[in-house]
What we know:
Elements: H1 4-18, E1 31-36, E2 39-45, H2 54-64, E3 73-76, H3 90-96, E4 101-104, H4 116-123, E5 127-130, H5 134-140, H6 142-150, E6 154-162, H7 180-192, E7 195-199, H8 200-206, E8 222-226, E9 245-248, H9 256-264, E10 268-271, H10 281-290, E11 295-298, H11 302-310, E12 316-322, E13 348-356, E14 359-366, H12 367-374
Parallel strand pairs: 3-4, 4-5, 6-11, 6-12, 7-8, 7-11, 8-9, 9-10
Antiparallel strand pairs: 1-2, 1-3, 12-14, 13-14
Helix pairs in contact: 3-4
The structure holds NADP nicotinamide-adenine-dinucleotide phosphate.
Amino acid sequence: MFSQTDFLHMERALALAARGLYTTDPNPRVGCVLVKDGEIIGEGYTQPAGQDHAEIQAMKNARARGNDLRGATAYVTLEPCSHFGRTPPCANALIEAKVARVIAAMEDPNPLVSGRGLGMLRDAGIDVRCGLLANEARELNIGFVSRMVRKRPWVRMKIAASLDGRTGLPSGESQWITGEAARADGHAWRARASAILTGIGTVKEDDPRMTVRAVDTPRQPKRVLVDSRLGVSPLAQILVGAPTLVFCASLDEHNAERAETLRARGAELVALGNAQGKVDLPAMLGELAARGVNELHVEAGYKLNGSLLREGCVDELLLYVAPSLLGTNALGMIDIAAPASLDARTRLNFHAVDRIGDDLRILARIERAEEAQTDTP
Length: 377
Ligand SMILES: NC(=O)c1ccc[n+]([C@@H]2O[C@H](COP(=O)([O-])OP(=O)(O)OC[C@H]3O[C@@H](n4cnc5c(N)ncnc54)[C@H](OP(=O)(O)O)[C@@H]3O)[C@@H](O)[C@H]2O)c1
């Protein structure tokens, strides 16, 4: 159904889409290549939200190079949009340009689009095909797909650990277990996320900024703190700069004064408590999705990591493993109890294993999360 040249052009479109890794949020990263008479005549990728989508960029690029778009083939990594959002529908623009063929990697999981964009193109007499390098396209927008399909972000839990799975000394000291290269790599993963989340235990112990510094990016992810009782110091680094979102268990007369102080520091407070008086984590994910969070990058301690995992709120682990041992009484990675039988253990799949400097980087997916994610258009 697809030729070798089709593959090459879609690979190019995917490479273009990846250029928007840090910038398109909350929109998906999309790439587009326009081909006519075997030649690439225009290329584009999604610009920051509110600006051109990939198809429009590619068409502008083709026209700027003096090309006529009539009869061209458009390779797009995601179905062209069919609705008026912050920009007009790309499907219309392709129809008006009189392209002859559109090859899409995957359908748009956005319920406002899902198939309608391709339908509009077909109705206009354009030869439309979908499904070329779909897995690669889905990976690139794993968070967007999750938000659209599951109404929750894709949750990636980053942990730096010793080879015996320890994340800090009993004293709380944990900086640094992994090397500089791994830490810089961690910043690249922060940069692609819509938001970075941590817990009050980590803030009290380490006072982290939770910003992206080691890689160049024009966009800082939103910062999110889980702090049931608003115990964060108004002077904490996590509150410095753009407004930080703080989830607590309740907002009432008992913490009104603290709440006011934190608001004065620019924090936005959201009360979502569970029966245990802690933050209701699944509800928090729903709230984050409603706010446009696609990929949520978690860097918390073992307690919050444990709750997130137990409550089914984790999709994958981004694990940096250092060639060192810290001992059994050092802090663990994830506070979960052993299951009653091995059959009940949490199963993961190794998605990627790489060496970063002196450390290992393991991307491991919870089996359930993988199933949910592939069950998409
Ligand atoms: N090596 C690494 O990758 C890494 C990364 C981050 C942190 N750390 C280390 O981890 C240590 C801190 O660990 P930690 O476990 O104390 O901190 P944490 O997991 O960051 O925060 C835990 C706190 O979150 C609050 N919380 C609110 N809702 C919760 C819920 N539903 N479930 C669980 N917790 C909830 C609880 O405090 P309240 O009840 O007061 O809200 C809880 O004590 C530090 O030593 C830090 O250096 C290591």
